[in-house]
Amino acid sequence: MGARRLLTFVGIAVAVVVVWAVFTTVWLWRNQERVVFQPPAVGAPDPAAARRVEIRAGDGNPTFAYVVTPPVAVAARPTVVLAFHGNADLAAWQVPWAQELAQRSGVVVVVAEYRGYAGVVGKPTYRSAADDARGALAFVNTLKPGRVVLYGHSLGTAIAAELAAEMTAQAPSALVLQSPFTSARDMAARMLVPVVSAVWSRITRVHYDTHKLVRLLDVPVWVSHGSLDLTIPARMGRDVSDASRRKGPFLLVQGAGHNDVADVGGERYWQWLTSAVTGNPVSAAVTELEQKRGRSLP
User: Fold this and answer.
1) Which end of the chain is more exposed for a tag (fewer CB within 10 A), N or C?
2) Which residues contact 61 (CB under 8 A, 6 or more apart)?
């Protein structure tokens, strides 16, 4: 009798696991864009510190970007940083960061918006985000830049990395990734159940794989991450940095989470970022944060 009860219990447990795995996989297949792209329900007014420019995505969909210029005169062929924000963010909310970067480094910063965000017509998807990024790059090229640096935060790191991989005629001067994830597959496995990884290639419409791309890109890749990031673990940022064909200094900001790397990192963060976008050597005080690459990360 005891053996029968044990077998019954095991059978029920296995059935529950199977049902949960099937339910989770089907739910993810149907809702993956809603997981990846989470436009804030609230909008934001155009910031006074930026100029809004209307642009066209690669597929012709209208969208926009904010342009932030430094207080000093811009060079004839300036360095332009094209920035892509995270999945629950807005371009307008990134303007203070862009203004600080422009003031410190003398670069022009263009913060792109995605469709489905901030009133931009259309639904955000993996393919539409790529088209929006291409449109933003086309606008940047109208500024006749001497150097183009791609920057991304969170979801924006994957969008920036894919755009960099497309820039075969003229590669970006650097790829700057703040709080990156290794791949969409890894994030799905972490957020849901391990079985998702086994069927990922069959169910996914979201193909981000930054870990794979940086191994191929002949571009300096600079990575920063907060040690207490609960959204994307710091070990993913370290893995992306380690995999890069051309490694820039990895900046681990102790005590920072997912959205406060700049605030917690303070001066050392800004020195690191300024070096990344200008191509100037990073100071010893910053490279110190490369710290013990063998150290385990969460």
Assistant:
1) N
2) 115, 120, 121, 122, 128, 131, 132, 135
